[in-house]
Amino acid sequence: MSTPDSDSNSNNTQAITGTVPEREPGQLGRLSAIYGRKLITVLIFVTVGFLIGPVLITFVASFFQNWTGILPSGGFTVQNWAQALGVGAESIGAQRGLGGFWTFVAPDILFILQLPGIADITVSFPFDIRIPTPIPVALGFSVLLALLGVVINLLVGVPIAYAVTRYDFPGRRLMNTFAVLPIVPGIILGIAFLKTYPGLPSVIALVLGYSLLKIPYMVLAVQSSFESMDLRSMEESARSLGASWTTTFLRVIIPGAKQGIISGSIICWTLAAAEFNFSYVVYSSGPRPFSLFLFENISNNPFLRAAAAISIYFVIVAAVTALLNYVGENGFSVGGVR
Amino acid sequence: MSTLDESSVLGRIRETRLGQVIFPTTERGRKRRRIVALALPFFILATFGAFIPLAKMFRISVSEEFLYAAQGWTIEPYRQLFASIAAFIPIIGTELSSTIAGGTEAVDDVYGATIWNSLWFSAITTVSSVILGIALAHGLEKYELPRKDLLITLISFPISLPGIVAAFMMIVLFGQTGFLTNFFAVLTGAEPLNIQLTGQPSGTVLAITGLFFGYLYSMIPRATLLLRGTYAEVNTDAEEAARALGATPMQTFRYVTLPQIRPGIVGACILTFRTALAIFGTVLVLKSLSVVTFRFDQLVKVGYELNIASALAGVFFIFTVLFTFLSLRYTSAEVAQ
């Protein structure tokens, strides 16, 4: 058994490493043969529990009145959600909510009318105006902000992905690495942005930052779609049938990569909506991005209200992930700098 | 008359190098124009979004006056920074730092300590999450598991969560009212206050353990997905042959699978390490360890020492770029795509 077999065995492994593994498995090898598979299976389920468990706990706890000990208690309530969303009469809850108020604080004396002969007439306006921003408006703003970033990502990411996939030119590999790796961490970019464009409205700065920080995900998603297409022959047959290059690109190539473009957009949207580091540094005025609303809740509010605020976010992400699966992609394609 | 003039101007433009890119006469030239046109939006975005702000930040780091406009030139922030880094080095540090700082008084080693914290903590979390990622990717790729698609979706879910939410998840598990804290408190009879992993003073073992899990929460999903891409390309015929020839599962992994996935592992390490260095939200909420990103925030928002912050950012940026490009170049790393 051993002599003819070990010969072929040594040939086989020499192609990979120089040493021949022990023929007889040691104690560890035997243990791993018996328990290895079970161990890794358990590890997978423990990890899923570690990753998803707190999400479920947060979600469930947000519907309870208090939480001490292992399990939440105190009965079912939607109060935490109402407070986090700023719905309802309590002004403190509403102020910390996503919407908040656009406030006009009236000065004590508006103006003094001085007319000859009569005593001065003081005109005052004792009412401060506080216009509550409805939650749908504020939420819509946050969605829109991330969406604008995605539009820029599309305009920038699709062409560069096509260029590095279809054409061969000097510096292609470098450009590929450059487009695919996140250039700078969000917090550094944020500080640099603040000093370079001090007068820029937060809205524009945020959209620019989102599009720049999330571009690698778009390029990767679109590129994987392009790589599964025979770009050269598609382009050549369209050209030979009389289409101009621009027409070919817009009406043949892009529709072909629809799958990657859609999944790339969804990934970029989710990540932009969740972007915190950059928003935290850059945001100064105007309606607040969603991630800052989360931070406000986590750092200042009672535990269960923060849980409710985060649960709102989970609902959004779960909806988007479901959409992503519906589009036909399992999970996200690659990780990067957050 | 005027049309003639224009055409001669156009003609002269056409003769220049740039003109030949814009108005090509050959098919090759037209192809070059297409590549330039396709790459142009990206470069415009990168220039205005990244290069100009980064250059501006570098300018601030070497200027004497920076509150209103960057004026003057000095290398003082870098001198302070490197003196502080040198002061952190044991044995030779004190002498070296006073040489760099040019003074006699002792230099505070706070930046050196911060950078060291970032490096060792990122390295430990990277190694841990990549090892876990290998095991997870192995199991997900090779074993028959129920609802595998669901498992993969669940494992990738935390990628879309920002760092602050990862920190909150740790509070949910390990905080004073946390699920696991109270579970172990009931089990061992200890006070939750003494075994909670969040809300402890910065730098203590318990606090750092809590932050460790917080980092892992963001990094395991990324590492697993990167390695799953690598595992998809492994040649299973060789593994089956090895098993048929009598190798144990461990030997098969050690001698057949591992050599094939090694480039993917190195690539995953590089990307995960970069991720770990850039994590900020988790630290901001948990406040367990002073890492570089956290220090930026303090310098800018609390102390307004923008020049040192810029210098630190510059060193950080150059380090990440050099690290990425050199390690991609001089190792067998493959960044799975």
Essential attributes:
heterodimer; A: 338 residues; mainly alpha; MetI-like fold; two-stranded antiparallel ribbon; 14 helices; 6 strands; disordered N terminus; B: 337 residues; 2 domains; 16 helices; transmembrane helix (chain A); MetI-like (chain A)
Q: How many β strands of chain A by DSSP?
A: 6
Annotated CATH homologous superfamily of one domain in chain A: MetI-like
| Radius of gyration of chain A, taken over Cα atoms and rounded to an integer in Å | 29 Å
Helix content of chain B: over 70%
In words, what does this structure look like?
Chain A: It is a multi-pass membrane protein. Chain A: It comes from Haloquadratum walsbyi (strain DSM 16790 / HBSQ001). Chain A: InterPro entries: MetI-like, MetI-like_sf. The complex is a heterodimer of chains A (338) and B (337). Chain A contains 14 helices and 6 strands. By secondary structure, chain A is mainly α. Among the domains of chain A are: 102-133, no CATH class; 134-327, Orthogonal Bundle (MetI-like fold). In chain A, the strands form 3 sheets. Chain A has a two-stranded antiparallel ribbon. A two-stranded antiparallel ribbon of chain A has the order 3-6. In chain A, strands 4-5 form a two-stranded antiparallel sheet. In chain A, helix 5 (135-166) crosses helix 11 and helix 9 packs across helix 10. The radius of gyration of chain A is 29 Å and the shape is flat. By secondary structure, chain B is an all-alpha fold. Chain B has 2 domains: 2-61, no CATH class; 110-330, MetI-like fold (Orthogonal Bundle), CATH 1.10.3720. Helices cover 75% and strands 0% of the residues of chain B.
